[in-house]
Task: inverse folding
């Protein structure tokens, strides 16, 4: 094995899991007797933390609030997490992996948890559209760079 091969970046999914889940349907059973005109509000955040030198936890938090006739039909919050091993990446590459690549891996799992839980709550299936975490990451980095250029140290989440 050459020295270059020994130092090649390594990435592995160690574990994928639901870290937290909450489902509330405050107006049932009345919601089931009214005309179903759902309006969906979606909030999405990502965060990562270092476990040790090469292990990182990435969590995507998805909150969907569905109203019908201006009353909350249900609210679901899911923190979908994963432990990822990343070794041999530059700080910039690692930051992008944790902020974009790993959330892209986790989101389909969160979508499935949300869809299954909503159905178990007695509501029609809620299928969330795919999310382009690469674009969100790029927007986040652009805002950070603009803020740094203007002396603004505020950070934003995506």
Result:
């Amino acid at each position: 094995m050459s020295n270059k091969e020994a130092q090649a970046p390594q990435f592995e999914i160690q574990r994928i899991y639901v870290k937290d889940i909450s489902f509330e349907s405050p107006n049932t059973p009345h919601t089931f007797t009214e005309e179903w005109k759902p309006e969906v509000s979606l909030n999405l955040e990502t965060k990562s933390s270092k476990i040790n030198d090469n292990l990182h936890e990435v969590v995507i938090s998805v909150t969907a609030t569905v109203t019908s006739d201006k009353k909350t039909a249900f609210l679901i919050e899911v923190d979908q997490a994963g432990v990822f091993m990343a070794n041999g990446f530059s700080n910039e590459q690692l930051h992008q992996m944790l902020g974009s690549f790993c959330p892209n891996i986790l989101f389909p799992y969160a979508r499935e948890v949300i869809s299954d839980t909503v159905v178990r709550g007695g509501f029609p299936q809620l299928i969330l559209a795919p999310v382009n975490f690469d674009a969100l990451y790029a927007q986040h980095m652009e805002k950070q760079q603009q803020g740094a250029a203007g002396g603004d140290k505020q950070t934003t989440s995506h």
Notes: The chain is about 35% helix and 35% strand. The beta strands are 10-24, 38-50, 55-68, 71-87. The CA atoms of residues 35 and 60 lie 32 Å apart.
